[in-house]
Predict the structure.
Amino acid sequence: MVRRYFGTDGIRGRVNTPPMTAETALRLAIAAARTFAPDGGREVVIGRDTRRSGGMIEAALIAGLTSMGLKPVLLGIVPTPTVALMTREAGAALGLMISASHNKADDNGIKLFSPDGIKLADAEEEAIETGMATAFEGGFAAPPAIATPHRMTGATMLYLERCLETVGTDIDFSGLKIVLDCAHGAAFEVGPAALRRLGADLTIIGDRPDGLNINAGVGSTSTDHLKSTVIQSGADIGIAFDGDADRVIVIDELGAEVDGDQVMALIAGELHRTGRLTGGGMVATIMSNMGLAEYLKGLNLTLARTKVGDRYVGEHMRQHGFNLGGEQSGHIILSDVSTTGDGLLAALQVLKTVASRNRPASDVLRVFDPAPQELVNIRFNGKNPMETDLVRAALAEADEILGDRGRMVVRKSGTEPLIRVMAEALDKDLMQRALSRVVTAVEAEA
């Protein structure tokens, strides 16, 4: 089916512009209720990040859910993995997280979790989207069955404890100087609380949300401020979350950015060394670097690839018995603890390893030599440029240039009007030739 609402990760867009309107949230709540709890009477967990528009969307979701006889459980401002955790813990019919992740405050979105705390499959999203079209056409709860929302306390503390349990008590963080960037987002309280509990020497930025400054010059997609703070303060390492803290980017003591591929390689190596890695390897997306696959091959481990989106990674992990997977962008799933990408949980595994090895982060986090890779984002208006003859011809030519020495990935973003063009090869010149050919064609059509 052609999707009107759902993208790569739930529904997302500019606030008060279709599809991200209060009406959409109301329709979604009603349709989701009919899909997951048609008889009413069950709880639905709702969390949100720090965006000002979050309250408006939350109110619309509450109206839709209560009209169907469901009981909204409001967590307030929490990271996305907290919603996934509490959906499972509460035995809820559904979990809803109001966030647009790394996007700026003008955008917002809704992520959905099943009763198991996992992101919905394509078929489930399609069923909800179909139901949204007829959401207002009757079939509501009787007046006595209209539910009352209530606020849950203690969810953040439970999430914090679950994350800290993975660190253990034998690692000393007191000698570790850390700069933490909370992106003025959902982890602005729980992130610092976790690292303070571990005794780290902590400098915090991005911890003063005002509803409009989320991801503005801070966070995992805007790391310049974090890099300069790490260097100026002489810190050992920097950690950046995105707006809903389901992803992490690391900065070493030299101010260099360490992406999710290197973080996953580090964690995979540690899990393998201690006999805790399952599935014979790990899962990543088509965007992850060839160097990661080569590193794992050297450990007699495999790299399984999926479509872009941590929900596809998680789905493959569950189906094939892996307990580690993620995305180059920093969504990392450690399924022994969490069912979704978890920035704080992944950061703690990195910090634990750096602290235990007593070596510079730049050394510890340079796990493999990445193959030359470049990603170009091209904004477009109107028709998808990938559907044109010019772009198809450029892609064929790029494949011929790369042969078996590289690969090209071109896809339409599921969250923004962007075409993402990624090329990588064992030879940098080869990669740039192929990339230039496709980028030129896409830009001409965009």
